[in-house]
Design brief:
about 260 residues, two-stranded antiparallel sheet, single chain, 2 domains, Arc Repressor Mutant, subunit A, alpha+beta
Length: about 260
Amino acid sequence: MDRGYIKLYRCIADDELWTLEPFTKAQAWIDLILLANHKGSTFSVRGNIVQIERGQLGRSETYLAERWRWSRDKVRRFLSYLAEVGKIRQQKSRIISIITIVKYDEYQETRQQKNNRQDNRKTTDKTTDKTTYNKQEECKECKEVNIITSGKPDPLVVEVVDYLNAKSGKEFKSTTKNTIKLIKARAKSGATIDDFKHVIDKKCDDWLGTNMEKYIRPDTLFNEKKFEAYRNEPDPKKIGTGNRKDSALDNWLESNR
């Protein structure tokens, strides 16, 4: 029986109350759905391009164990159980582990909701030949506007956020007020698109697959003081990875082979 839906903002997964105590199994299952991509994206792991589709997430057992405050064995058993009952599929390789939520679309929206969302996404003003975006509800906690009220998104903000999503496998929006504010402030101070990409490359190279991965987000990377420090770090593309011993990313990849 279809009992309908409740609206659950993704930002709840970043709330301190969500991760305050060890997860229950039900909470861990919901967390997997929250962490899954709502659209396809790609990112790089040690020079390998990884494609993550809608309804998938690329997370290691180590990452989930730390997030859920479980042992790795408990995480492994839980994921095996979910796979056995048909809730997820797992794909493991020497590069990364990918989890697919089997009925992701069913958990997200009904067909009628999907049609309504597509119909209301945007309308075209025939007299001015410009696109006017419909105003949608603002999340009061994360101060995120899913679609801006008018005009087109700032090209620089879109390019920076798209690049960050492609490199990290995350799903930040270029319409989030604080993200726009941070990126424009850094650009006003003289930062170029190459500076933004350098910071993203460096921190993704350092933090992906480690317990620092949660800090790969606009409010950390583009913070005034931190951005300047990250921008002056050596370019990861110009440094050979062969001499990086005991890096957290290498250890993670090794443990997931």
